Amino acid sequence: MVSTRDIPPGGEGRIKVSFKTGTSFGKRTKSITVRSNDPEKRSVRLKITTDVQAKLALVPRRVYFGKLRKGVRSPDRYVEIAGTDRDTTKILFVESRNKFIRAEVVPFTRKDGSRGKRIRVAVLPGMKVGRFNEWVAVHTDHKEKKKITFHVYGEITGDIMVLPQYLSFGMFRKGGKYERKIRLKAAPGISFRVLDVKSTTPDLIPNLLTIREGTDYWVEVCMKESFDKDTLNGKIIITTDDKDQQYIEVTVTGRAFKERMKGRRPGNARGMKKRR
Q1: How many angstroms separate the CA atoms of 215 and 194, rounded?
Q2: Using an 8 Å Cβ cutoff, are 232 and 255 in contact?
Q3: Which domains does the chain have, with CATH numbers?
């Protein structure tokens, strides 16, 4: 917010800047641009830096486990208690609604030599195959922050490797012939059969190609040349005899280039008079 828009020669004005911190804390830097009619410097970029203090927070707030093999315990990850009230706040208990997410409070020594507590979190064997997105709640005796949470996410991979998991046709021109492929490959010592392949939209035609029976398959996905929509959205559903990956879904997306209107010259915008 500017105190006044008209500043006389030799005068001054003030700009009020407000930070929307949300749930973030720590050092934050933002910039604003001031434009004026000054003939020597019409634009000035101002950098604003502040240190947002939190009473109680978790670092990090998102814990990514990446891809984990099914039936295997994940490596431990740690979430620290931060904020000005961290040393005077007692952690009562931590909980996750998913029984395969284990979270517990453990003591540790900080870099400055002081003692503190943090949350140790791990993914246990038994988590079903596929992506997981879970929340862990930390309950405290803090008068304002009774419960704080952090996000735990990742993916459990099964015996069938699927590449890619999202199939994109990118940008395409209508009326063209386009095809993509999905690969299904078994883990070492594992075999499976593909029982069925279908599309959720008639605009995509899937075709199964067997590279090596029981271990390696390709699914060829063709877009119909008659496709005339602006966006392509659908799924390829692959049915197998694997107990953990009986149904494999691959999302398919794409977008058609916008066609220029007939009779309009490039660069001649609507409503503009033609120069003579």
Answers
A1: 10
A2: yes
A3: 57-157 (2.60.40.10), 160-256 (2.60.40.10)
Q: Over the Cα atoms of the chain, what is R_g?
A: 28
- Nearest Cα to Cα of residue 121 among 71, 58, 55, 69: 58
CA-based max dimension of the chain: 84
Nearest by Cα to 132 from 59, 61, 65, 75:
65
Q: Taking the model in full, what pTM does it have?
A: 0.67
- Helix, strand, coil shares of the chain, percent, nearest 5, are 0, 55, 45
pLDDT tens track for 195-248: 999 999 999 999 999 999 999 999 999 999 999 999 999 999 999 999 999 999
pLDDT of residue 4: 65
For 95-130, the pLDDT digits (tens) are 999 999 999 999 999 888 988 889 999 999 999 999
8 Å CB contact between 108 and 119: no
CB atoms under 10 Å from CB of 58, counted, come to: 22
Burial of 148 from C-beta contacts in 10 A (0-12 / 13-18 / 19+): buried
Please answer whether residues 52 and 28 qualify as being in contact, where contact means their C-beta atoms are separated by less than 8 angstroms.
yes
pLDDT of residue 157: 93
Query: What is the pLDDT of the chain when averaged over all its residues?
Result: 88
Contacts of 154 (CB under 8 A, 6+ apart): 64, 65, 66, 67, 68, 74, 123, 131, 132
